[in-house]
Amino acid sequence: MEQEIVKVFNEQHEQIGTATRAEVHEKGLWHETFHCWLVNEDYIYFQIRSAQKKDYPGLLDITAAGHLLAAETVESGIREVKEELGLDIHVHEVVKMGMTSCSIVSENMIDNEFCHVFTYPFKHDWDSFELQYEEVSGVVRAKLDEAEAFFLGGTATLNIEGYEYFPDGKRVKIVRPVSIAQFVPYRELYVAHVIQFVKEKMFNKKL
């Protein structure tokens, strides 16, 4: 996976070449990712990153996301939803929010991303998930209004519910409050902006 080839960009999102995933994270080169948030009128969904992951193991993250390879279009990123969550959805079913940039510097890497953000109106139940266990160990959700307040800094904890899934088909119910330290460190207000987009553009809720 670290040797996959991705496009490399300057800060103006102009392509300047290609590099491996390992190189872009080592050198802090700008590259593209695909984000897909599962949402409905009441909830926003998060994945639990596998404990096997090199980066941010066990933390809560975007429902489905991944790097766009050099030969792929932005829309090709929809494959991540199938690969990580086992959901068969088509690109015409998702709603494009737009592109944002994100820079995260951690002990292991310098991650400079142009993120293409999409939302998907999720109408299925917990049984529809078939997780890629080396990537994702569970799926949880939080109420939209509560999540918006949390990611705007208005509350210290967020109540989540969902399941951790296991390869043998079993799953364990999760109901607990979490703090911001239990999420991958996104750009400030990113998730709040996603929720505001969902409420206003998808479900016509007044902000």
Description of the structure:
The chain has 4 helices and 11 strands. The chain is of the alpha+beta class and 207 residues long. The protein has one domain (5-202): Nucleoside Triphosphate Pyrophosphohydrolase (Alpha-Beta Complex). The strands form 3 sheets. A 5-stranded antiparallel β-sheet has the order 5-4-9-10-11. It has a 4-stranded mixed β-sheet with strand order 6-3-8-7. Helix 3 (144-151) runs antiparallel to helix 4 (190-202). The longest helix has 13 residues, at 190-202. The radius of gyration is 17 Å and the shape is globular.
In a nutshell, what does this entry contain?
This protein is of the alpha+beta class and 207 residues long.
List the helices and strands and how they pair.
Elements: E1 5-9, E2 15-20, H1 21-27, E3 30-39, E4 43-49, E5 60-61, E6 64-67, H2 79-85, E7 95-105, E8 110-121, E9 136-143, H3 144-151, E10 158-165, E11 171-178, H4 190-202
Parallel strand pairs: 3-8
Antiparallel strand pairs: 1-2, 3-6, 4-5, 4-9, 7-8, 9-10, 10-11
